[in-house]
Amino acid sequence: MLPRQAIAAFLLYIATEISPTSSFQSPRAPGPGRATIVVRAAGGRKGGVPGSRRGKVNKPKRGRGSVGADTSPPSPVPPPRDGMWYFGCRHTYEDTLVAEMCQTVPQLEPKDCANVAPGLVCVRSGALSSFSSSSSFSSVAAEDELLGATDFTYALQVVPHVSAVKGASINDLAKGAVSALERDHATKLEALLLAPRGALALHALVPDMFKASANPDLKSRCEGVSSAVRSLLRERFRAARPRVRQQQQPSGKQPCTDVADANSSTDGTSPEESSSDQWVLQLLLTTKNELAVSLSKSKGVTGALADGETEGFKPIHLGTWPDLRPAGLSTDTTVDAYMPSSAYRKLAEALALMGWDLPSSLDAPSNDPSPPDHCRGSDQAHAGIKTCVDLGASPGGWTALLRRFGWRVTAVDRSVLDPALWVGGEPANLKDFVRRHSVNGFPPAPPPPQTAPATLGATKAGGGGGGGIEAPLVDNHDDPAAAPLLTFVRGDAFAWEPPQGVDLMVSDVASYPERVAELLERWCGGGEGGQGLAREIVVTCKFQGGEGPDWAALEAAKVVATKHGYSVRSKHFFSNKNECTLMARKNRLHIS
Fold first, then answer.
1. Is residue 401 packed enough to be buried (19+ CB in 10 Å), middle (13-18) or exposed (0-12)?
2. 409 close to 390: Cβ distance less than 8 angstroms
3. I need a labelling partner for 61 at 20 to 30 A (CA). Which of 158, 303, 487, 527 fits?
4. CA-CA distance, 327 to 204, in Å (whole number)?
């Protein structure tokens, strides 16, 4: 038998000399499906480090309050160069993003891209010019054309066409940023002069933010630069000034509202103008004295009109690009101390991108929340959500999140829901549910749900069959005729259909990717007159093993949704793994 020291030396040789490495992969950020083997040095207990295991697989550590946050020490980031583009993504998926960009952009090659930090990929100046008919990106129209084509599935944020700035102090960096704007973005600054108050968002970014670090390095310094830049800009640009807020009524009961959401404005700007004229100034501090400055107009992302749709149809927005959230990340996807599963974070990110933010108060939950800001306006009328269907709901993470919004949910699965969603055989009240799970994080398990008597509103299974309703139970509601707050259906998620259309359908079913198109065909093309069974849809497309994304299946699903008159968008969110999330929203008739 070979000595342990010889075996360890042989494994060390294999790990350092034979294993291939990618030129676009950070040594601290292995690609999807790749594991780094840690070779332990000889010595210690049983020939290794005391208390350690041989062949241990390194996995991304989770930071407090973040999913899968990378807690590895920072490394130097290459300095920015004029004309560079930066793209943020889920760290460990940088290679997948580069492959998608090279597959999508004509003449773009892997050598034009580099992974400069975990979750941050840069593209050299001019490499994306084949995507635009103009060689200059200083104009708004030229950059809009290019930005619309760079909404990659694996990109969470874009920092386009940066200007490099150097400065020894915060004030030097701020003055250099304003000078760079005047030098490289003069045309866009002229358009910014016409934007209303509050239309300019400033994002203070550092590389650690793109891996969702709990304590990003250089964050406080970058925030100081951002504050100084805003002070310099607000003298000339009203868009850099805060929106005027209406005064409270004498009674003090009416909350303040932003001018953009009111019927009139004190600066002469209509609500439609202020909601559609959004700008974002991104300040990426790569090192202590080096800054990348990017100014762009944030446009609503819409899908193409299907064949046969007339000019009367106008696509509904599915978020914005660049994302109006810094680094394209949700600020907090943690809802409660306990949830039936952590998968709810994926849905939280998708709903946040679509404009549905979590209610700020549990004392007044609403079953008819206000429409998202980007859906307001005369041609973007969009009603609130009341009814939802969760396909493949067990154990109930997505269902619990939907209930957190105050929406009525029908959960469909062959397996029962987590007992935590029920109290004494009835659906947990919204406030009680959240507060129950905030006590030490682990509440006592309630008894399993019992089948409800018919007097509580039990009905037969809906159109597609696939099982009967087991526990359609109602909460203590003032209206006895109200629909159940939570209904569980034991059945096949791919076969069951609701008896009538719903506002939102979500699905996290584990299935082959090609079945997503089948599911969308049923839900987008079903219902009365083929108008669809749901107005809004969020579906996870799961890929097989370590094969990476199935682009053919993803494109087929998009084609199905577009064919039936839905705007559709796909994203690989921070909480996604070897999967992508598809979001679809029914296009609305233009209201003149």
1. buried
2. yes
3. 158
4. 9
